Amino acid sequence: MKKLARAIVKMRRLILIAAVLLLIPAAVGAIATPINYDILSYLPQELDSRVGQLLLETDFHLASTNMITVEGMPTNELLAMKAEIDEVPDVLNTFWLSDVLDPAVPTEMLPADVQQFMFGKNDSTILIVQLGGSSVSEETMQAVAQIKKILRKDCFFGGISVILSDTKELVMGEMPWYVLCAVGGCLLVLFLSLESWLTPFLFMLGLLFPLVYNFGTNIFLGQVCFITVSLAAVLQLGVTMDFSIFLLHRYDEEKKLCASNEEAMENAICKTMSSITASSLTTIAGFLALCAMQLTLGADLGIVMAKGVALGVICTIVILPSLILFFDKWVEKYRHRTFMPKLTHLSHFVSKHPMPVVVVFVLLMIPFGLAQSKTDIYYNIFAALPQDMPGIVGTNKLGEDFGMMTNHFILVREELTASQMSALCDEIKEVDGITQVVSLDSITGPGFETELLPDALMNIVQNGGYKLILANGRYKSGSDALNAQVDELAPFWSNSKKSVGDFTCSMTNLREAPLSMRSNKPCMGEAALTTTARQSMQIRQIVLMFIL
Fold it and tell me: Above 90 in pLDDT, residue 358?
């Protein structure tokens, strides 16, 4: 240990030069590391929600489908806007009634289900925008940005891709500001508690190295989640700051006992290394414990933070001593008295009355524990976003004008006849909270020649061996009512596992699944199918609930 400390002190100039040079590739790596904004991608791949999402994405191209609520717009202007949206790269289709009917047909002549689905309150109608990429691909983000520019007044763009696009803008815009706030807060505390005006800036400079190294080495992970990127810098700053303070205090103590600053730093490194190494290992173990989560977002955050703490220890032992020795004369020049109270009386009181102090704090655990048990937990991650974001406003508009708080995409085998599909839709309508159920067969009825319909429409409603049912609900995502609705729907296919062989049937509400997983219900096979139509369905991969 002593030899290592002597080598660090002796080669401090070379260490500083190497540390600065290493910032260059680290910064390049940090910039080049892709940021993943798709929270659903961190679900276990074997979950039926993930299987269903990929099925919608590959066969139906519906994983990044979004909806535009249009209020009070004349038909000719609506059609002109629709044509402009169709010209946007990566837009596969913008669906409206004009794709299947003459716009001049009075809405009163349309089937009731179509009227309810396509026309809502406030003289509103709905455009369905089908994008070609995944919900968070770069092409999708660019398409969403271009569509926003095309929209006229009183047009509200909602859906998962729109919300993720807004989230990306929000994170990238605000991250520098809250990192700056964290740095400012740390500097204020350090100014008040340390004895030199220069030392706080020295600490921040020392922490810059492990921070940039950590973000730069993220490139070896392939990508990192936007939540990790948002939290990692501030967390690393707070967790590793103590290491620098330990080293500086030990160095100040050793300077009073040693003949030279170099010898004092050698002793400080030796005595600090053991304490901060033990402290950091417990912190690293805590972060690595997140890797045990099935939701791999835990592993993403855990690995990045464990790596950040390890790099913080290394830089504190190797780089910070070099900085302190290099700037030591300026540190001494700008010394001042500390402004933090010594708390001498409090320390004497605690040391003289240990048992009463312990009893008081144990008793305090009771009310705080009760308060914690009363704290509500929400599972809808979008509820934490600003409610004035365009994507949130657009999605909420679907609920206000059309009663679409949630949209459930249900995939069933295409072997089902029109009458069986209609019967299934009628039964789903009876489920509490379901406001509308729409499928091609329920609208056209038996005997309709689907060859007469445009290919663009058929690709949406029937593809890859499956038919699509769209069920709208009035309950908010992540709510107990929606989970109860999922439970009520589950018996519709609980026995179908016996007939599908290679897939387990389940329902999952995708918007809440990344946080709670509570809606994922593997089929157990206890509930009996009660109608002949259900018995003949042979549902192979059932229901993906995808919140637009």
Answer: yes
pLDDT in tens, 48-84: 667 767 777 776 666 677 889 999 898 889 999 999 9
Q: In the chain, what's the furthest Cα-to-Cα distance? A: 99
Distances, alpha carbon 435 to alpha carbons 116, 259, 430, 438, in Å: 10, 82, 9, 10
Three-state SS letters, 301-361: HHHHHHHHHHHHHHHHHHHHHHHHHHCHHHHHHCECCCCCCCCHHHHHHHHHCHHHHHHHH
Calculate the alpha carbon distances from 259 to 228, 262, 264, 265 in Å: 46, 9, 8, 11
538 sits in the region (left: phi over 0; alpha: psi -120 to 50; else beta) called left
In whole angstroms, what is the distance from residue 427 CA to residue 532 CA?
13
| DSSP calls for 226-276 | HHHHHHHHHHHHHHHHHHHHHHHHHHHHHHTTSSSHHHHHHHHHHHHHHHH
pLDDT in tens, 467-499: 888 888 888 777 778 888 877 776 665 433 322
For the entire predicted model, the pTM comes to 0.76
Using alpha carbons only, give the angle 352, 357, 363 rounded to the nearest 5 degrees: 165
- Cα(324)–Cα(205) distance, integer angstroms: 11
